[in-house]
Write a structure and sequence with these properties.
This protein is of the alpha/beta class. The protein has 8 helices and 11 strands. The protein has a 6-stranded mixed β-sheet with strand order 1-3-2-4-5-6, sandwiched between helices. α7 links the parallel β10 and β11. It is elongated and about 95 Å long. The two termini are 71 Å apart.
C-alpha cells in the first residue's frame, strides 16, 4: 500500500501484521528505511499496560531517531467479536516520534506517511494517537496527561467564562422565577402597589414618564421615578450606574395629526453592572412587556441603550414612524450597437 510519498510496507512488516502473533506483543516500533516501512522491534507483554509502558516504550526509542510506536492497551475493541479464541483485537495507542533536530526531509517524510501506516495497521484499532518531538513526551505520565486534556473542555477566555456563567445563572433564575407569584398579570416578579398605581395613571395619560427599578435583593419591581417631561429631557433621566426600565408617552405630530405613542427604553450602563443584575433585567424584560400589553399599554417602539446621550427625540420619532426610502432605480441594459442598414449580398 502506498501514499503520496510512495512509501510501502516491507515484506517483513506486512507478514508480521498479517499473522496473529503480533496480538500478544505489547510494543511495536516501526521506522522508514530505504523508502519502506520497516519493523524494528516487537516487545512482548509482561504485565498490565501501565507497568509495561516505560520499560518498553522509553527503552526502544532513541533520542535522535524518528520512529512510529504502536502500544497495546488492555481493553479490547467493542466492535469486535471477542468470543473467538486468539482474536486479540485490542485497542492501541499510536505515537509518532520525530525529534526537533531531525532533518526537514525526515519531518516531511514521517508526517506524510503517518496516514498510510495507520491504514496498513488498521484505523479502527487505534484508540488514541499523538505526536511527540521530545522523548519525555512518550512517558506513561505524558500519555495520561494527553488523555485527560483531550477529554476536558476547551480553554476559554475570561469574557467567555463570564458569558457562560451569565447563561447558567440566567437559566437558574428563570427556573426560580417561574415559581414566584406575580402581582402584575404574566410577570414573573412581583410589583409594588405604588408601581401598579402609577402604571394605571400612565395608561390614562395623567403622567407621561415612568422609571422602574428591579430590586435584586427583594426580587420585585419598584417605581423609581414618575413625571411629566419633554422628549428633550429624557436623556437626563437615564442613570449612569444602574440599569432601568423607562416608559415614555411621546407627544408628537405625524402627517398633521397629533399623536401619543408609548416608547419602552431599557438602559444598562454596560459590563460595570454586576452580572446578576444584568441577567435579571434581561430575563424579566419580555415578561414585563407582556404584562404591559395585558394592561392595554401598547408599545410603539423599543430601544436598548447604555447611556442617556443615545436617547434623542429625532431617533424616537423615526423608530415610531420609519421613513420610506425611495427604491433604487433598476439598471437598464443598454441597447446593442447597431449593425447598420441591411446589406444586399449577391
Amino acid at each position: 500500500m502506498s501514499c503520496q510519498t510512495g512509501i510501502v510496507a516491507s515484506s517483513k512488516l506486512a507478514n508480521y501484521l498479517a499473522s496473529n502473533g503480533h496480538h500478544s506483543d505489547r510494543c511495536i516500533k516501526i521506522t522508514i528505511e530505504d523508502e519502506e516501512l520497516q519493523l524494528i522491534q516487537n516487545r512482548i507483554s509482561a504485565g498490565d499496560y501501565e507497568s509495561d509502558w516505560d520499560r518498553n516504550v522509553m527503552v526502544c526509542v532513541e533520542d535522535d531517531e524518528p520512529c512510529y510506536i504502536f502500544y497495546r492497551l488492555d481493553q479490547k475493541a467493542k466492535y469486535v467479536n471477542t468470543k473467538k479464541k486468539g482474536d486479540g483485537a485490542y485497542n492501541y495507542v499510536f505515537m509518532s516520534y520525530v525529534p526537533n533536530d531531525a532533518g526537514v526531509k525526515n519531518k516531511m517524510l514521517y508526517a506524510a506517511t503517518r496516514a498510510t501506516l495507520k491504514r496498513i495497521f488498521g484505523d479502527n484499532r487505534i484508540a488514541t494517537e499523538f505526536n511527540c518531538t521530545v522523548k519525555e513526551e512518550l512517558s506513561l505520565q505524558a500519555y495520561k496527561n494527553h488523555v485527560l486534556s483531550h477529554g476536558s473542555a476547551a480553554p476559554m477566555t475570561e469574557a467567555e467564562k463570564e458569558l457562560a456563567q451569565v447563561k447558567k445563572d440566567e437559566a437558574a433564575m428563570r427556573s426560580q422565577m417561574s415559581n414566584n407569584s406575580a402581582t402584575l398579570p404574566g410577570l414573573n416578579l412581583p410589583a409594588t402597589q405604588d408601581l401598579l398605581t402609577n402604571l394605571e395613571k400612565f395608561r390614562k395619560g395623567f403622567i407621561n414618564y415612568l422609571q422602574i427599578k428591579l430590586d435584586t435583593e427583594t426580587e420585585e419591581l419598584k417605581l423609581w421615578d414618575c413625571a411629566n417631561i419633554k422628549a428633550s429631557e429624557l436623556s437626563e433621566k437615564v442613570p449612569v450606574e444602574e440599569p432601568r426600565y423607562h416608559l415614555f408617552n411621546f407627544n408628537h405630530e405625524f402627517e398633521g395629526n397629533k399623536m401619543w405613542s408609548v416608547v419602552f427604553i431599557y438602559s444598562c450602563p454596560g459590563y460595570s453592572v454586576p452580572v446578576k443584575q444584568r441577567m435579571m433585567y434581561s430575563s424579566t424584560k419580555a415578561c414585563f412587556l407582556d404584562s404591559l400589553a395585558k394592561m392595554d399599554i401598547e408599545i410603539a417602539a423599543k430601544q436598548e441603550i447604555s447611556e442617556g446621550d443615545e436617547v434623542k427625540e429625532n431617533d424616537i420619532y423615526e423608530m415610531i414612524h420609519p421613513q420610506k426610502h425611495a427604491s433604487r432605480a433598476h439598471f437598464v441594459k443598454p441597447k446593442a450597437p447597431s449593425r447598420g442598414g441591411r446589406r444586399l449580398i449577391r
